[in-house]
Design a protein that fits this description.
single chain, Nucleotidyltransferase, domain 5, 2 domains, 5-stranded mixed β-sheet, globular
């Protein structure tokens, strides 16, 4: 299953007051393992960035004025998240801004049924405690040293680690079947489009391998 960890930064707290998105980031995973596919854009909000917002994320009005507006990135964004489960911390905030922009453009809005709110999960597990992303990172001993400012892409990566801990599962690893490993007597290769590695086995190694297989066959079938 493909998942998307999503986060935004904005000019303020409410789209109803005319505030806009200035950054949107999505990190794609498969069964919670990063695929290295990301969507990340800084966005021109076509308005000034208040000092309060600038102090949080560090994106100035001047910097953002040269970036694309949301209407120019909307289709690429929708294509990236299509058909995938979306995980957001405090989903009502990000969805409010995103769906406001999408509806203004006449685009398909994000269905809440496809969204998991990690904040709701955290509140269910740690009632009465602070469940901000920072607080959860500290609870789970996740390194926050890179987070000097709020950054949507970094927050997506931190959220993935938090989410794994909220589910009480170990860090997912790529399983062997995903790379479809094929072993022959004289080479090792993968059937996917990775660079192929050839390992030559000498006569002694082949002989040892052959004797090992015969021994195992006798144990299991005789």
């Amino acid at each position: 299953m493909y998942e998307i960890f999503l986060d935004t930064e904005t000019t303020g707290l409410s789209y109803q007051d005319g505030h806009k998105i200035v950054e949107v980031a999505c990190v794609e995973t498969m069964d919670l393992v990063p695929t290295k596919n990301i969507f990340h854009r800084l966005i021109n909000p076509k308005r000034n960035v208040p000092d309060e917002a600038y102090n949080i994320h560090g994106f100035s009005t001047e910097l953002l004025s040269s970036k694309e507006t949301f209407d120019l990135v909307a289709d690429d964004f929708l294509k990236f998240i299509e058909g995938k489960k979306i995980i957001i911390h405090n989903a009502s905030f990000d969805l409010g801004f995103l769906n406001n922009e999408l509806s203004r453009l006449g685009k398909k809005i994000i269905n809440k049924q496809n969204v998991i709110d990690s904040l709701e999960i955290a509140r269910g597990k740690f009632s009465g405690s602070s469940n901000s992303l920072d607080a959860l990172c500290k609870r789970f001993n996740i390194d926050l040293s890179r987070r000097t400012k709020h950054n949507a892409l970094l927050d997506c990566e931190l959220l993935r680690e938090v989410y794994i801990n909220l589910l009480d599962i170990k860090e997912p690893k790529l399983i062997l079947s995903q790379s479809e490993v094929v072993l022959s007597e004289d080479k090792f290769k993968t059937t996917k489009n990775y660079s192929k590695k050839v390992i030559k086995l000498d006569t002694l190694e082949l002989d040892r391998h052959s004797r090992f297989l015969k021994k195992e066959l006798k144990k299991n079938f005789y």
